[in-house]
Write a structure and sequence with these properties.
Mean pLDDT: 83
Distance between the termini: 21 Å
Structural class: mainly alpha
Shape: globular
Low-confidence stretches: 1-29
Strand content: 5-15%
Number of domains: 1
CATH architecture: Up-down Bundle
Largest sheet: 3 strands, antiparallel
Order of helices and strands: EHHHHHHHEE
CATH topology: Vanadium-containing Chloroperoxidase, domain 1
Number of strands: 3
Length: 240
């Protein structure tokens, strides 16, 4: 039997979230270029080579990070951890959505919802990989090559970094000025730095987490129809 295609659409509508007088938002900030791949062959090859090099140098990079750890790096790491911590990020996105609701701004609501959607998708991928790979964290083992699938160890990839880059990318794709992009990606990079500086992750953990977060957000942003703000509700549709 020949299978020509498979299409799965999951639709979710949350009614009564918006006032009945609200109109559908028709102004995407950055129309996606669907003709381009999320990751070109050249970029994928470059990313692969970098990841291999970092995997091989994880233990040395950890030693360098711990050697230069001091009060200044601890302060920077504290800020970075907050940007990737779901205990802070999710309430912040909820507050942003509420602000959009109170001010009647469809754009603010859309940005908050898309950032939240990117965070959920990216974090889901990372969580599955964490338990499937079972990599030990640096504090658990000095061996960066120690992987025990489904052992309960969850070092790979970095969940904080995944969340930070997913949110940063989703919001950056909705803005026009380069300065906001610099600030968003800078904050996400601080999260990656914090996870390595605090000896919570190997460098390869944060690199893969950043890649998952970035690509997950880009995948959603390229499908502008996945989320629509309608009178009386919010509709989300995912097509694979």
């Amino acid at each position: 039997m020949r299978v020509r295609g498979l299409r799965l659409i999951i639709s979710l509508t949350v009614a009564h979230l918006l006032p009945a007088s609200s109109a559908v938002s028709q102004v995407p900030s950055r129309p996606p270029d669907l003709s381009r791949q999320l990751l070109s062959g050249r970029d994928a090859a470059a990313a692969g080579m970098i990841l291999v090099a970092v995997f091989m140098g994880d233990e040395g990079l950890r030693a360098q990070a711990q050697a230069y750890r001091g009060e200044e790096t601890k302060s920077i790491a504290q800020i970075g951890n907050a940007f990737g911590d779901p205990r802070f990020v999710l309430p912040a996105l909820s507050a942003t959505y509420l602000a959009g609701q109170l001010t009647g701004s469809r754009d603010i609501r859309r940005v908050a919802l898309r950032a939240g959607g990117a965070a959920i998708v990216a974090s889901g991928v990372t969580t599955a990989l964490k338990y499937a790979t079972g990599r030990s964290r640096p504090a658990q083992s000095d061996d960066s090559d120690l992987f025990r699938p489904f052992s309960g160890r969850n070092g790979f990839p970095s969940g904080h970094t995944t969340l930070a880059f997913a949110v940063a990318t989703a919001i950056a794709d909705e803005t026009q000025d380069p300065w906001s992009d610099i600030a968003l990606y800078g904050a996400a990079t601080l999260t990656a730095f914090a996870r390595v500086s605090n000896d919570r992750h190997w460098t390869s953990d944060v690199l893969v987490g950043a890649l998952i977060g970035h690509l997950s957000a880009r995948w959603l942003s390229r499908r502008q129809r996945w989320l629509t703000v309608r009178p009386g509700g919010v509709a989300a549709s995912f097509e694979f």
